[in-house]
Write the structure tokens for this entry.
Amino acid sequence: MSEFTIEREEGETKGRYVIRIDGHEAEMTYTKVGLHQRIIDHTGMPEALRGRGVGEALVQRGVEDARAEGIKIIPLCPFAKAQIERHPEWQDVLRG
């Protein structure tokens, strides 16, 4: 698990994971599709947090939560898609 504190904010149809460091906020947003799928649609990273593993930590948390909740992920966000492709151990949560 990541060394970052990751908060999860969830609404009825959308949600996001957030990491706040030194006044900067990185996020990964998702949209719920029914009860068993999530579309990861955006990862936002301020320049000050780039290169620190923050984005990877956000995607990892999304994968871990999806696995624990029996949810499949559709990674439309290019960054999230690339991270999941780089980690074969995360690919069990992809919608197949």
Q: What stands out?
A: The mean pLDDT is 95. The radius of gyration is 12 Å. Helices lie at 54-69, 78-86.
